[in-house]
Design brief:
The complex is a heterodimer of chains A (about 260) and B (about 425). Chain A has about 260 residues and is α/β, with parallel strands linked by helices. Chain A contains eleven helices and nine strands. Helix content of chain B is about 75%, strand content about 0%. A three-stranded antiparallel sheet of chain B has the order 1-3-2. The longest helix of chain B has about 30 residues. Classes of the chains: A alpha/beta (about 260), B mainly alpha (about 425).
């Protein structure tokens, strides 16, 4: 596998256990910078959890994740997260611009005023995803594809270097999917690193430069052509690891402690 | 006589009335603002549980100090409200119980303990306990100067803190994980918002009582949400609705001292909510009914125009008058619908009538051509892209073609390669 001198993300021995059920198990990898990286695996493989673990949104049971070689808290301003669209209440009283301006919260913190400059950046982000006409629209009136674009604009307004997208293509029309992919390629051309949780094998080959295959534990991580092989995909999707999840179920049922000590 | 009471009240002639009005306005306005966040975070039931849970705290404060000091009551109420909240969240997190079970459990357990304590205080022979039961349904009528000071300090402090942390509270209400990812102290914000809610409840119960407090949190927020899509406007409107409810409640409690204040405040708040749900633009029932009706009329009109155009295709002259009875014979519509649709189209100048025959006007013919074009483009699209059989296409196409905008039309035309024939082998009229 290729050497990576300056990784964007480094995971070391990363383990996450939810309610005694191992979701991520000893994940170790280095991800390169300036590429579009896909995280793939079957349902329940821990793809979203991996992204959340990197971002410190879920507690780790062991191991650590570093971003640009540092603790996340030191480089948080360089990192932008795009959660799954369905996780928020789109009936919240806010306009498209309000949501995109949240992308400036990272810079402004809890108290500093949102300036004209912030508004200009937000407007510009909306233009980049072709949603400028919707700036004052209620978010409840948006289609699924438009919601995803708004989330992307919010991330762009963060002006980060590393973007982590959780299933951005779910429930999105083909035209929006294409325009999001083009957007991601443009960002890559500007030297940004993009990590995408994805589940559609058909498009994986077309979208990604680098692939992480996951099924609770790490199956493979490497350049697309090395990793996107029948053999590795079979291991990832064949459910060989169901024994692990069965043992997890047993532990939960019998109220076993997660560690022996 | 009654008018005299009303005027006395309006002019705040009695000092006592001033206290009651001031207290009710502050408590109800402030609770309504805090309640907006409870409402937006979908924690209405938790708000209800907290309200019931402050009762044991109030009783304990009296038992421990033997005094009816509003400050002690407040501290007791906050402590027991927070305790119940912590247990609720702990139970939910540990997955011992589901959230709804935890909420119902804490509500009934704390309220039950509160009632037990209250009853034992009342039978303890302590003369100074009189009036403690007012915490059940509110005691706006007996607000004292000491109460008012506490209310004022609490209301100002709570509102100031809400404003100060508005960005953080909005962020966790909309998207907690994102807020965490940008480095906001989400745990503290959540705790802070919960604390402000418990505080608001603990003073608010003096107006409406523990049983009905959650209505004061939720109902004004619900009403406000009907009228606006902006969070700031919503907060202001909720405050206004809360204050109106409080004011009216204070009036009732002044004019009929035997009436419990809390329930009346809630009745007024509910009436406002009912009014909002009926009459608000866009979200109101009436606005939605009008819109549905408009859409139904549009569908009907377009279908009738289509019929005229199709008859014209058979006869070779789309402007030829059609006898009314012939139209009825097509049975595509009920007689009533058809008559209504014809009249609507006549009013718009798309159809003209004479001697019980109907005929498309020039504009009517253009409009009919547009509708038929859209209809056939849409059928073709459904057939080619969704593999629907031509004889199945019809019904499905009918429903959706009425919302096709010129932009979508252009896209369809492009996508289908500017077709001229539809699945039934009839001509798609070109765009004029």
């Amino acid at each position: 596998m290729s050497e990576i001198l300056h990784p964007s993300i480094e995971a070391h021995n990363l383990t996450v256990i939810y309610h005694r059920k191992p979701v991520l198990w000893n994940i170790d990898f280095l991800l390169p910078q300036g590429q579009i990286i896909g995280i793939m695996g079957p349902n329940g493989a821990g793809k979203s959890t991996l992204v959340k673990a990197i971002l410190g949104l879920v507690p780790l049971n062991s191991g650590y994740a570093r971003v640009y070689g540092e603790e996340l808290s030191a480089v948080r301003k360089r990192v932008s997260y795009i959660p799954q669209r369905q996780t928020v209440d789109w009936d919240f009283p806010a306009t498209v611009l309000d949501v995109v301006l949240m992308g400036r919260y990272q810079q402004r913190g809890l108290f500093s005023r949102i300036s004209q400059e912030d508004k200009a950046i937000a407007q510009q982000a909306l233009e980049q995803v072709n949603m400028q006409a919707y700036a004052n629209r209620q978010i409840s009136q948006l289609s699924g594809g438009q919601q995803q674009r708004v989330f992307l604009a919010r991330a762009l307004a963060q002006q980060a270097d590393l973007y982590l997208l959780d299933e951005p293509f779910v429930g999105v029309d083909a035209a929006t999917e294409q325009s999001i992919v083009e957007m991601l390629r443009k960002m890559k051309a500007e030297g940004k690193t993009i990590v995408v949780v994805h589940h559609d094998l058909h498009t994986a080959r077309e979208y990604f430069d680098w692939l992480v295959l996951l099924n609770a534990s790490l199956i493979a991580s490497g350049p697309l052509e090395e990793v996107f092989t029948d053999e590795l995909l079979k291991v990832t999707y064949s459910g060989k690891l169901t024994v692990l999840s069965q043992v997890g179920d047993q532990m939960r049922e019998r109220n076993f402690p997660v560690r022996e000590s | 006589m009654t008018w005299q009471i009303f005027i006395d009240f309006l002019l705040l002639r009695e000092p006592n009335v001033r206290l009651v009005v001031a207290g009710s306005l502050m408590l109800c306005g402030m609770s309504a603002v805090v309640g907006c966040f409870t409402f937006l975070r979908k924690r209405a039931l938790i708000g209800d549980a907290i309200s019931h849970s402050v009762l044991p705290g109030v009783c304990m404060a009296f038992i421990l100090t033997g005094e009816k000091n509003p400050l002690y009551f407040l501290i007791g109420a906050i402590l027991s409200g927070m305790l119940s909240l912590v247990i609720m969240e702990g139970l939910t997190r540990s997955r011992q119980t589901r959230p709804d079970t935890a909420i119902a459990l804490m509500l009934s357990v704390f309220f039950g303990i509160g009632i037990v304590l209250l009853t034992s205080i009342q039978h303890s022979g302590n003369a100074s306990q009189a009036g403690l039961d007012k915490f059940l349904f509110g005691k706006a009528a007996s607000i004292t100067m000491e109460d008012i000071r506490l209310f004022a300090v609490s209301s100002v402090a709570i509102l100031a803190l809400l404003l100060l942390f508005l960005r953080g509270f909005t962020a966790i209400s909309f998207d907690e994980e994102y807020a965490l990812s940008v480095g906001f102290p989400v745990r503290w914000l959540r705790f802070g918002l919960s604390f402000l809610t418990v505080w608001a409840v603990s003073v608010g119960i003096q107006a409406v009582g523990v049983v009905l407090m959650s209505a004061l949190l939720i109902t004004p927020a619900l009403s406000a949400r009907m009228w606006t899509n902006s969070l700031r406007v919503m907060l202001l409107l909720a405050m206004l609705f809360g204050m109106i409810s409080g004011y009216m409640g204070a009036f009732v409690s002044y004019s009929a001292p035997a009436m419990p204040t809390g329930p009346w405040i809630v009745v007024v708040a509910t009436l406002l909510a009912g009014f909002s749900m009926m009459f608000a633009p866009q979200r109101g029932l009436i606005a939605q009914w009008i819109e549905r009706n408009k859409n139904r009329n549009k569908t009907l009109e377009e279908n009738i125009l289509k019929l005229f155009f199709q008859i014209g295709e058979k006869t070779g002259n789309s402007l030829k008058p059609v006898m009314e009875e012939d139209l009825f014979n097509y049975r595509a519509f009920s007689n009533r619908q058809l008559r209504r649709g014809l009249r609507l189209l006549e009013k718009k100048g798309l159809l003209t009538t004479s001697l019980s025959a109907w005929q498309l006007s020039r504009e009517g013919e253009m409009e009919a051509r547009r509708v038929v074009r859209l209809h056939r483009l849409w059928e073709l699209y459904l057939q080619q892209y969704l593999n629907l059989d031509p004889d199945h296409v019809h019904d499905d196409a009918e429903a959706m073609e009425h919302v096709i905008t010129p932009e979508i039309e252009a896209q369809l035309d492009e996508l289908l390669g500017h077709p001229s024939i539809d699945p039934h082998n009839t001509i798609i009229p070109p765009r004029i």
